[in-house]
Amino acid sequence: MKLFTVEQIRQWDAYTITNEPITSVDLMERAAGAFTEWLLRTGLAETHREIFILCGMGNNGGDGLAIARLLYQAGYRPHVYVIRHSERSSDDFVINLQRYETLAKVQWLEDPQTLPLNETGVIIDALLGSGLTRSASGLLAQTIKQINASKAEVISVDVASGLFADQANDPDDVIVQPTHTVSFQIPKLAFLQPKNAPYVGKWHLVDIGLSQAYVDLTPSPYFYTDTRAIPVLPDRESFSNKGTFGHALLMAGSYGKIGAAVLASRSCLRGGVGLLTVQVPRCGYTIIQTSVPEAMCLTDEHETELTQPNDLSKYSAVGIGPGMGQAKASQQLLRQFIAQAQDIPCVIDADALNILSQERDLLEQLPAKTILTPHPKEFERLLGKPWKDDYEKLRLLQEFSTRYRIVVVLKGKHTVVASPDGEFHFNSTGNAGMATGGTGDVLTGVLTALLAQKLEPKEAAILGVYRHGEAGDRAAARRGMVALTAGDVVDGLRW
Ligand SMILES: NC(=O)C1=CN([C@@H]2O[C@H](COP(=O)(O)OP(=O)(O)OC[C@H]3O[C@@H](n4cnc5c(N)ncnc54)[C@H](OP(=O)(O)O)[C@@H]3O)[C@@H](O)[C@H]2O)[C@H](O)CC1
Ligand SMILES: [K+]
């Protein structure tokens, strides 16, 4: 799914109004109808619950008033408040105010302290939406503080009031902290940024029928990987043999961390590779041979560390780094590996990334088909500097990916795949149970398997990250997030 900036969403609105055609107030009616249907379907607005609808004077407030009317017509009796936060009001706000007032009165809120909010009620937050132009202050900020203090269930319309939909907020901004955000048509970029988690809650999309033609015509670097957008593996022909699906090499493990090599190997096999060779230090030989009998084991001459370069020419892809440690000899090995692997697709992870951060000249020499898989701390080390906010992080990520012509998988709740063509693909699968040791090694194995099957690095990264998260979701469904281990993620892989 393509994602847009606030300015593009405004143009999308206008394009739909002109080309469908539909009047803007009817489009608002459609948005309010979709929100109300969601609300009634979820049972969050049961009849015994008090419903408070807090409206601004722009189109987000207009949505709030239209929702109030639809609920009223469905038999509910919401308390509707309007806040005078601006000199101006939008035309569709005015129309919807008049329509509501044919049924009941609204209250113009003068003093937020008087709001009778309580924890058994449900608050519909329609103060401000994507039209936010500055941080909330004054009466608006006081109202938002009251909402957050109420402990009521809060449902934000389109976007939490006070949250910028496509740029960073200041750390001390006052922003609604909703339980749910019900957003129109597409997730806003803000929903995918880690620092915004408290200002999004669980987010849901409702379809308001904005023009598909506009989506097709409008370029954007931002994408959300949902089921409709994942790349596919080629079909397995009935005459294929194990050679068809590539021969992968994993270089992983050190004394005390052979488990990382085991996990990456198991997931590489579940990723569909034809043949797998695992290079581990001597101490890992028996472990690999007994716990991953499907793999061939290549033992390093060193007892506890990876040190030995080997002939890479027979491998279709290599994954290097899980559990590898950062011993001097392993640093030298990585240097030799990079020099040798120029024509081989490879995944560089974990300790190998930390070695790259220290030996920065190696970044300039990375093979053309490289995927790096840092978590935020590792990426910060690779950059050599921290970022100011999540959006600056994305800019730096894009610069980094373009400069070194590599795909970077930045791991997190919405893992983002950045590619040298400037695109960002945010992942939609996975869960907090996966924040546990070894899940990164599992991802490295999967990505190596996909590269070995000749997927391009960008497609391999988007698909592998998606399936890895999906496997984690299966594991969480079976065991719960607390009990989830990296091995369960391997078991959850399906294609
Ligand atoms: N395509 C869609 O998704 C549709 C969205 N709809 C809804 O419309 C809003 C966006 O509406 P818009 O009128 O553009 O913006 P807001 O309602 O968010 O804001 C209105 C005005 O508020 C003023 N403003 C902005 N920031 C502040 C602030 N910090 N303090 C006080 N006032 C503020 C500003 O006006 P000024 O002239 O005062 O600057 C804004 O213009 C979207 O989120 C959806 O809910 C449609 O209903 C359907 C299609
Ligand atoms: K809102």
TrEMBL record:
Catalytic activity: (6S)-NADPHX + ADP = AMP + phosphate + NADPH + H(+); (6R)-NADHX = (6S)-NADHX; (6R)-NADPHX = (6S)-NADPHX; (6S)-NADHX + ADP = AMP + phosphate + NADH + H(+)
Highest taxon of source: Bacteria
Keyword hit for Isomerase: yes
Every YjeF N-terminal domain range: 9-216
GO molecular function, one term: metal ion binding
Record-level GO BP terms: metabolite repair; nicotinamide nucleotide metabolic process
Cofactor note: Binds 1 potassium ion per subunit.
InterPro entries the UniProt entry points to: Carbohydrate_kinase_pred_CS (IPR017953), CARKD (IPR000631), Nnr (IPR030677), Ribokinase-like (IPR029056), YjeF_N_dom (IPR004443), YjeF_N_dom_sf (IPR036652)
UniProt binding sites for AMP: 411-415, 440
Co-factor(s): Mg(2+); K(+)
Enzyme Commission number, as recorded: 4.2.1.136, 5.1.99.6
Entry keywords, A to Z: ATP-binding, Isomerase, Lyase, Metal-binding, Multifunctional enzyme, NAD, NADP, Nucleotide-binding, Potassium
The keyword ATP-binding is annotated on this UniProt entry: yes
Annotated ranges, domain YjeF C-terminal: 225-495
Ligand binding (K(+)): 60, 125, 161
Record: residues binding (6S)-NADPHX: 59-63, 129-135, 158, 260, 323, 375, 441
Oligomer and partners: Homotetramer.
Protein family membership: In the C-terminal section; belongs to the NnrD/CARKD family. In the N-terminal section; belongs to the NnrE/AIBP family.
Function: Catalyzes the epimerization of the S- and R-forms of NAD(P)HX, a damaged form of NAD(P)H that is a result of enzymatic or heat-dependent hydration. This is a prerequisite for the S-specific NAD(P)H-hydrate dehydratase to allow the repair of both epimers of NAD(P)HX.
HAMAP family (UniProt xref): NADHX_dehydratase, NADHX_epimerase
Stated name of the protein: Bifunctional NAD(P)H-hydrate repair enzyme
Organism: Siphonobacter curvatus
Gene encoding the protein: nnrD
